[in-house]
């Protein structure tokens, strides 16, 4: 069984990328057996997908610059108590998402938390 990612690049070309190939050795290819196989491989596949997203983002200059600026802002709020207190008030009053630093080992951190 193969998990493939299909996407369109910046030149509007359709591309495909094989994320994972999972050997299926059960003699009966029922939906229950396929589901069991997928559940056992989702963590590995999610990690592979996270690496693809990270590499893609790092190769796009605008996004890479934005992430660097965001990390600097996070560092400021982390080390300045009064700024942190003010940010928490703003987040509560505006029903904003919590300010989260991107973490290379965490899949969700390149998106909104």
- Oligomerization state of this entry? single chain
Low-confidence runs: 107-113
Strand content: 5-15%
Strand order of the largest sheet: 1-2
What gyration radius follows from the Cα positions, in whole Å?
Answer: 20 Å
Rounded to the nearest angstrom, the distance between the terminal CA atoms is: 32 Å
Instruction: Spell the H/E element sequence.
Output: EEHHH
**Which percent bin holds the helix content?**
40-55%
**Total E-strand runs:** 2
Taken together, the total number of domains comes to 2
Shape: elongated
Mean pLDDT: 77
Profile the largest sheet.
Answer: 2 strands, antiparallel
How many individual helices? 3
Structural category is alpha+beta
InterPro entries: RNaseH-like_sf (IPR012337)
In words, what does this structure look like?
The chain is an alpha+beta fold and 113 residues long. It has two domains: 1-59, no CATH class; 61-113, no CATH class. Helices cover 54% and strands 13% of the residues. It is built from three helices and two strands. It has a two-stranded antiparallel sheet with strand order 1-2. A hairpin with a 5-residue loop joins β1 and β2. α2 crosses α3 (81-93). The longest helix is centred in the middle third of the chain and has 29 residues, at 31-59. InterPro entries: RNaseH-like_sf (IPR012337).
What's this, in brief?
InterPro entries: RNaseH-like_sf. This protein has three helices and two strands, in the order E-E-H-H-H.
């Amino acid at each position: 069984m193969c998990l493939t990612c299909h996407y369109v690049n910046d030149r509007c070309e359709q591309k495909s990328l094989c994320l994972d190939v999972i050997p299926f050795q059960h003699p009966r290819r029922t939906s229950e057996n396929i589901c069991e196989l997928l559940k056992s491989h989702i963590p590995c596949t999610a990690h592979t997908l996270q690496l693809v997203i990270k590499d893609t983002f790092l190769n796009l200059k605008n996004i890479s610059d934005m992430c660097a600026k965001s990390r600097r802002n996070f560092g400021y709020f982390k080390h300045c108590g009064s700024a942190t207190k003010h940010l928490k008030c703003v987040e509560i009053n505006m029903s904003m998402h919590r300010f989260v630093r991107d973490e290379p080992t965490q899949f969700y951190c390149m998106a909104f938390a």
